[in-house]
Automatic annotation (TrEMBL):
Name of the protein: NAD(P) transhydrogenase subunit beta
Membrane topology term: Multi-pass membrane protein
Annotated catalysed reactions: NAD(+) + NADPH + H(+)(in) = NADH + NADP(+) + H(+)(out)
Annotated SUPFAM superfamilies: DHS-like NAD/FAD-binding domain
Keyword NAD attributed: yes
Subcellular location: Cell inner membrane
Main localization (coarse): membrane
Amino acid sequence: MSDFLPTGIELSYLAAASLFILGLKKLGSPATARRGNLLAAIGMLIAIVATLLNQQVLNYEMILVSILLGSIIGTFMAQKVEMTDMPQMVGLLNGLGGAASALVAIGEFWHSLGAPEALPVDSLMTTILGVLIGGITLTGSLVAFAKLQGLISGTPMTFPFQQPFNIALVVIFLAGSGYLLASPGNVPIFLGLVSISLLLGVLFVIPIGGADMPVVVSLLNSYSGLAASAAGFILMNNMLIISGALVGASGLILTDIMCKAMNRSLTNVLFSAFGKGATAGTATARGESGDGQRLVGDHRPIHSIDSEEGAMMLGYARSVVIVPGYGMAVAQAQHAVRELADQLERLGVEVKYAIHPVAGRMPGHMNVLLAEANVPYPQLHDMEDINPEFERTDVALVIGANDVVNPAARHDRSSPIYGMPILEVDKAHHTIVIKRGMSKGFAGVENELFFQDKTVMLFGSAKEMVAQLVSQVKQL
């Protein structure tokens, strides 16, 4: 039995790792994402049970109490947190993962202080790495959470000589790490390394704007995986090493996808303070020119309509493509959007949804919201699939999206979003834009789409305006 137990544990870890890989594969599609999440959860359950069978576990009571407490908190969060708050919760959970890994590293170092022999060099290096990655992940995720929750400003926060200061901190951390390797029991130096890692996490995220949070969330998710792998090497646990590596690799791949969707490099996202000059307020249209036109800013006319006119355009169309954005998420309008689509389909209108990869505040944000509203998966189309359809679309309905539908990205070389792949809604026969006002997007530039002859503006809250459209379409 004693010989079989270690083998059984390792085989259980192998089964769990296989379920993790299958789960990640199925998470790549909205239609299979729930099944993938379930498979990964089963894999984690197997890994936990196998770990509890390990004879090195000394205190089952504390572990079981912790599992019970964590399960209660997790169940409460799953029940109470709104789908629109998923970015914040994901950011917070990333931070907790980093904290767990950092605490493992700190605990290992503290345990070594009372041991007859100092930690081997390789183990100490892994401990230092766990502290660095875990600390950055913890505080960086907490800052991202605060930005997404509105506890602090979502605009980039910078100060003079910020990057040289960050570089100096990294150099000090490396020098301190070298000193600790030479003097393994030096507690003040170790605590200094912990403090620097926590400070670096804060400085890493504060110069990044709110609209770049999809990249930040996916990158911090990758960091949490790398921190878990480091903890696995510290504890000599193969399951932690494998699962952490999977999370780290998938997070990096997703980060790369997000950057390509914005036509920006990762270094540009992290260090350029992009969006610092964006207008935060809601600028309203100014001036009247008659015939439903208003004059905005430099006196370019826009065409404004009411919900009755919008309902007629949608109800008598053959095809409608709905383009959701962060404005839909903020207004929590996803259920009203689904009801509008149902009413249009009742009239024989073909309805599709166009999803931009970086719409919202986390990867897949729009997919999550629309899934909560039970929008059929076949109606969701990514950018590459839907763009060729716009030329044959009667009406494109843009709900709270801005930069991701700005035609300037295709031709204006002076625009900060030039080269960014966009949803080409301007090629539709008509476009309706639901927006509170004429505020600029995160990039701080006017959206050319709003001033085109084929575009009409429906001003107001997304939830309120869509509800009015539903009411008017029902009367058709």
